[in-house]
Amino acid sequence: MKRRIYAVASALLALVAATAVSLFVVTPSAQAAAGFTISGGRLIDARGNEFIMRGVSHAHTWYASQTGSFRDIKSLGANTVRVVLSSGARWTQNSASDVANVISLCKANRLICVLEVHDTTGYGEEGAAITLDQAVSYWISIQSALAGQENYVILNIGNEPFGNNEATSANWPTHTRNAITRLRNAGFDHTIMVDAPMWGQDWRFIMRDNAQSVFNADPDRNTIFSIHMYGVFDTAAEITDYLGRFRSANLPIVVGEFGHNHSDGNPDEDTIMSYAQQNGIGYIGWSWSGNGGGVEYLDMVTNFNVSQLTSWGQRIFNGANGIRQTARQATVYDSSTPTISPTSRPPTTRPPTGTPTTRPPTTPPTTSPGGTRGCTATYAVTGQWQGGFQGEVRVTAGSAAISGWTVTWTFANGQQVNQAWNATLTSSGSTVTARNVSHNGSLGAGASTAFGFIGTWNGSNTTPTLSCTAS
After folding, report:
1. Cα gap 195→25, rounded to integer Å
2. Is residue 296 annotated as a catalytic residue, yes or no?
């Protein structure tokens, strides 16, 4: 967002209509040994499953003490947090140790970390802004914190790296290609995210029309494009045309920022969210809390208090096609349960009150009969709100490999399941039966998988007893 926290955005810019359709051809992705990859224009996590971002930005560099925000963002259903960092050029530098702690907070809360350098914002128009090449120098300086984190971290090279100076913005393709090449030569294997020029809104279609050449410049073919949608994208036609061209070309695209309102116009957030959901496109809203300079209305919670959602917060988390309804946790987190250490998650300065427990203890595993070919299942509530909750069931094979599994349980308090993923669920009265889907039925000895669901509750939401049968 242009001058998002420290100044009011500039006047509305006219959207220049595109008259020609760009032809994109995507070459096969080069699969890295580990971490996120791009395949067929889709973001794939380290376990080989598609990952669709549903998250928000958090201004960590200006509010470094608000580490409880990672927990709170997760509690509302997000699977991604985009973290604002500074190289030190415009604000206090986030050191390698601080970035390492940010990553640990993301992992502890089962969030994918999108890390961005904010000092590039508005280069060519904002006098203090740095170049993408300078941003790359910062990433290289903290590489020790990032190495080995490819499963959990996406590198957003620089936020909104060019302003509205058209002559300067015309350099976006070259500067972006060079930045990607330099990162790869330095040994970075992460998925790279690149923001559009012109305060992220690409109203001259520079990113759109040069996306293929930038993608091809990455030897790993592991770059995703990020468009920021504010006043330039105030009609459904503009949103669907822009995103649709990337999707038709099999080029990866994410809405890296958007809001429900802005000083440069009124973005159509309903279309952004619905089109993204219909077409498997990620979105990240701006921003959790702490906005200033006239855009305080973009805060999702008041004073970092998760129990005080603003109207924008209610819309993006709980509204139609919102985060709570559509987010799916990255399956890279299915294999383990991170432990949150006291030092990595201190209390917020304004502790939330009355917030439901987001991760109650799981039930003890129940082992099915049948000798060594068996399975166990555990149940956890990973998010809860008034009248609704998100659950996760983890299935673990016994001492022998299995080719399929079925988990059953009976709700005691009238809970109901509305939707599920990574399992086929059926209900008969209060009894729920979950069966594996094609990609997660076969488990080696001791291996595990997980499926999730969204449910409703009223009065109490007690944990049921599970039974697991293997085949």
Report:
1. 21
2. no
Class of domain 37-335: alpha beta
Q: What is the pTM of this model?
A: 0.68
The tens digit of pLDDT for each residue in 379-407 reads 998 778 778 888 889 999 888 889 999 99
CA-to-CA separations, 304 to 64, 91, 217, 294, in angstroms, rounded: 12, 21, 40, 18
Catalytic, out of 116, 125, 126, 160? 160
Tell me: the pLDDT tens digits for 59-88? 999 999 999 999 999 999 999 999 999 999
* Catalytic hit among 116, 126, 238, 257: 257
The CATH architecture assigned to 366-470 reads: Sandwich (2.60)
257 is catalytic: yes
The token pair that represents 30 in the structure block: 């080069």
* Distance of alpha carbon 159 from alpha carbon 415, whole angstroms: 43
Instruction: Indicate where the chain has its CATH 2.60.40.290 domain(s).
Output: 366-470
pLDDT in tens, 95-152: 999 999 999 999 999 999 999 999 999 999 999 999 999 999 999 999 999 999 999 9
